[in-house]
Amino acid sequence: METYLHSIGNLTIDPISANSSKGNADIKVKNTVYFKKAPFKTQNELEQFLDNGKWTHKSIESRKEKLINFAKKMWCDYESM
Questions:
Q1: Cα–Cα distance between 6 and 79 in angstroms, integer?
Q2: pLDDT of amino acid 75
Q3: What span, in angstroms and rounded, lies between the C-alpha atoms of 24 and 79?
Q4: Which of the chain's ends, N or C, has fewer CB atoms near its CB within 10 Å?
Q5: CA distances from 19 to 14, 55, 62 (A)
Q6: 46-64 burial, b if ≥16 CB within 10 A, otherwise e?
Q7: Which pLDDT belongs to residue 67?
Q8: Where is the GmrSD restriction endonucleases C-terminal domain (predicted)?
Q9: What is the number of structural domains in the chain?
Q10: Bridge-partner residues for 51, per DSSP?
Q11: Which pairs with CB-CB distance under 8 Å and at least 24 residues apart come from 25-33?
Q12: Is 36 helix (H, G, I), strand (E, B) or coil?
């Protein structure tokens, strides 16, 4: 998992204070306590990437692809304005 630690698929937008309070908590705790109530959609949807209830390299790769596709679409839409 070290390879995926700083991958875009493993990162979320979070204020410093919120990030440090989560620490290395289990993904189930983070999802239930923090992410489902988060103000950003990218955090609210993390549950859909879980692999049998776990955050794995497969989860990170799937989320990375979704974020890349979203960015490409946004840039293409922006350029066509």
A1: 29
A2: 87
A3: 39
A4: C
A5: 6, 17, 22
A6: beebbeeeebbeebbebbb
A7: 92
A8: 2-69
A9: 1
A10: 54
A11: 27/54, 27/55, 28/53
A12: helix
Amino acid at 25: A
Q: For residue 65, what are the domain limits?
A: 2-79
Structure tokens at 32: 């239930």
Per-residue pLDDT at 68 = 94
Residue given tokens 């290395």 in the structure block: 24
Helices (H) and strands (E) in the chain, counts: 4, 0
pTM of the model: 0.72
Measure the CA–CA gap between 27 and 11, rounded to whole angstroms: 13
Rounded distance between C-alpha atoms, residue 73 and residue 3, angstroms: 27
Please tell me the distance from the alpha carbon of residue 55 to that of residue 74, in angstroms, as a whole number. Answer: 27
